[in-house]
């Protein structure tokens, strides 16, 4: 017999017993009390039997409040959209003639950065543009010119011409570092030429690496981003721009990516001043995982600031970092000459140092600095003129040492030596390879402090003086 049937039978029996006893002229009060207790006990057993199947999950009792701390269910986004949509612009370009023939047109989105007419969009929207037109939500149209652009971050800065004295509706920029997965966001743009289309969703992930460049640090969102949305703003629920919509996945549905606005903030002064990304350089080799300094290049900005091997870099200009890539992104987006504040941990003590960044050497120079041709004291990277190298450059094999890189602000750079020069003499002694340069330098120069270098540059030979 099932437990539920047994329980029901016992209850019926108890009730029948009590009723029969009362009909016969009354029942001892003690027996009546025991019968009632038995009935309550049996009812509890029935409840426990039925609840046993629900032990795999829990349900909120109707009397309990369903409110979740700090959560406010969204209702309408209309007030937010009305407040920000005037700053979103439509961008149309007439592009340079392609190899296939004929000039093409393209369209994208952007947003007004400053009331006097600076506009942010994607680099790929304007990279080939011969002319650019920007349309505002109120119907006004302006021609625009490129102030600066960078392919590695896909960010471009435009300036509208003929704005006049009336200020334009500019956006507020937010803090993309404070975004959390699950935060609500709104994308506004011109997908497929449909002006000021709005989509909303949430932050799906942060720091997505798509394999595009070292600066990959995308915000992933499920707010719909389609062709034509490129360069448009991604707003948070405060009406602040937290990203620049830039990429979609052709094989995915409802997956879009945006450049974090904090990265854009670091880049914008560089674009405005230089027109392109002039990358800053500290002169450090850093542990990939924990941003611990492994090596400091001599005469580099880091060396001049007193940074040492073993220091851990905690923050750049107050922004926390915990890996080599984060440090590289922060520093490389800043222009050479920028005064930068680093927060270090040295021997258990936090300290701050000011560093004036130099221009980042070419990748091949940085790679060569770690090789056998590195003349660190002088800021030179040299390579033997082997028969293969010499023939490709039109030189005689082992007729000198080829300069393949020069460290910024080094004695070699200050002396005027450039990549491509061939060093043929050191302190008036002939040299035929890198080993010869090293050996002659080790011999000294008769008590003088300067190093006299003879270089061949094309068909011309000249003497240059380095001060170590």
Largest sheet: 7 strands, antiparallel
For the terminal residues, how far apart are their CA atoms? Answer: 100 Å
Which secondary-structure class do the elements indicate? alpha+beta
Instruction: Please give the share of residues in helix.
Output: 10-25%
Whole-number count of domains = 3
Radius of gyration, whole Å: 36 Å
CATH class group of the largest domain: Mainly Beta
Detailed description of the structure:
The protein is an alpha+beta fold. It has helices at residues 3-23, 29-51, 78-84, 123-126, 261-274, 301-304, 324-332, 363-368, 387-393, 411-415, 434-443; strands at 88-97, 103-112, 118-121, 129-135, 141-150, 155-160, 172-173, 184-189, 197-208, 218-221, 233-235, 240-248, 256-260, 280-281, 284-286, 293-296, 312-316, 319-320, 339-346, 349-356, 358-359, 374-375, 380-384, 401-406, 422-426, 429-430, 451-457, 460-466. It folds into three domains: 78-276, Thrombin, subunit H; 280-359, PDZ domain (Pdz3 Domain, Roll); 363-466, PDZ domain (Pdz3 Domain), CATH 2.30.42. The mean pLDDT is 82. The protein has eleven helices and 28 strands. Strands 22, 23, 24, 25, 26, 27 and 28 form a seven-stranded antiparallel beta sheet that branches. It has a six-stranded antiparallel β-barrel with strand order 1-2-3-6-5-4. It holds the Pfam family PDZ_2. Belongs to the peptidase S1C family. Keywords: Hydrolase, Protease, Signal. Residues 276-348, 365-458 form the PDZ domain.
